[in-house]
Amino acid sequence: MALYVYKFGGTSVGSIERIKAVAKKVKKAHDLGDQIVVVVSAMSGETNRLIALAKALQQQPNGREMDVLLSTGEQVTVSLLSMALHEIGCDAHSYTGSQVKILTDSAHTKARILNIDELPIRSHLNKGKVVVVAGFQGVDEQNNITTLGRGGSDTTAVALAAALKADECHIYTDVDGVYTTDPRVEPKARRLDKITFEEMLEMASLGSKVLQIRSVEFAGKYNVALRVLSSFKEGKGTLITYEESPMESALISGIAFNRDEAKLTISGVPDLPGVAFKILGPVADANIEIDMIIQNIADDATTDFTFTVHRNDYQRAKAALDKTCAELGAKKVTADDGIVKISIVGVGMRSHAGIASTMFKALADEGINIKMISTSEIKISIVIDEKYLELAVRALHSAFKLDQEAVS
Ligand code: ADP
Ligand code: ASP
Ligand code: MG
């Protein structure tokens, strides 16, 4: 007898018909004698709808109240799925995050899981029941409801799989695995049978929303066997593997992109020691996370300093920078929220030169101007105008022959 954690995303539970289909799939696995814990997201569109309701009242709603609101989406689907299971003769018991209990810190809307009480779940499983747990939510020490950030049901599933020492954690979604890039942008994208944990971590952190980054971190930390599969069609999906097999690894495994960033530049800053700190200090003090940074030195002993932030923080970062600009006697601040970051990822890039030049040539051939570049051992990221996103992703996909099967 094996124990599986199955997670179904918003589209997979987006209607009564789909909830019935999920119930059938779960019952089938349960009838084979395995123990099944199911984690569900809210119905598709529901979390966005709740956020819009809150924003209609307040631009920056209180975090605690926001989490009380957002957690309702998943409370609806756990109960409906349990009813659907009962209806077809499968005993099921639903839990909200706080009932389980999934203990988190108190960082509302982006809480981290600290501990999970697995005993109540185990006792239901041992009685032959399916346990249905609300994704994306937990409770803090003071009994406040918390949520885990967008896409957080993935993390609930992986954390439960770790706590219960499940044999596998299956993330069922609206695509049949992890692809070389988002198949919505490049229809020629290819499903990967396997992806290394390290690559999946980069892809998720660079914007591939197929798995929430924290779920991948959790899986790595606790060695959870993780697989991404389709809710709608049979198949083996993509296994996140912890073994690196350099023989098989392609130079580039995938292309990720992030539309959620904005770019800010302060130019004509006197080039003196401490200037980077003077620019970024106030941004950090405003609790704004910075992603890419570049600094150019001009001939006249001044410097231009450019960095990117999340688009949600764009206005606040601009305000902080305008203030710094006046204080430092710098020339001007320019800001651009019409950009996108595109990254190529692959463990194979470690041992091969020339990857960057292939990337830059593919973009040059399409006449796409690169605004920023950053690299690490297994990725290269560039920032370009958002309007070239599709063109750039497709050009890179073809330049690195990602539509073709990797040669081992
Ligand atoms: P769910 O609601 O099931 O959690 P998500 O929308 O969060 O689903 O994640 C699935 C989506 O991720 C896909 O529909 C796809 O558009 C997108 N995606 C982005 N990058 C990739 C990738 N490399 N492989 C597969 N899907 C990707
Ligand atoms: N419902 C939440 C969201 O839309 C969590 C999830 O789907 O994973 O972000
Ligand atoms: Mg998701």
Q: Please identify which CATH superfamily of the largest domain we are dealing with.
A: Acetylglutamate kinase-like
CATH third-level topology of the largest domain: Carbamate kinase
- Distinct helical segment count: 13
Q: What's the helical proportion of residues? A: 25-40%
Largest sheet: 8 strands, mixed
Mean of residue pLDDT?
94
How far apart the termini lie comes to 36 Å
Strand order of the largest sheet: 3-6-2-1-9-11-12-10
Which outline best applies? globular
Structure ligands:
adenosine-5'-diphosphate, aspartic acid, magnesium ion
CATH architecture of the largest domain: 3-Layer(aba) Sandwich
Instruction: Specify the oligomeric state.
Output: single chain
Beta strands, count: 20
Rg for CA atoms: 23 Å
Summed up, the domain count is 2
Instruction: Write down the CATH class of the largest domain.
Output: Alpha Beta
Helix/strand/pairing category: alpha/beta
Strand content: 25-35%
Low-confidence stretches: none
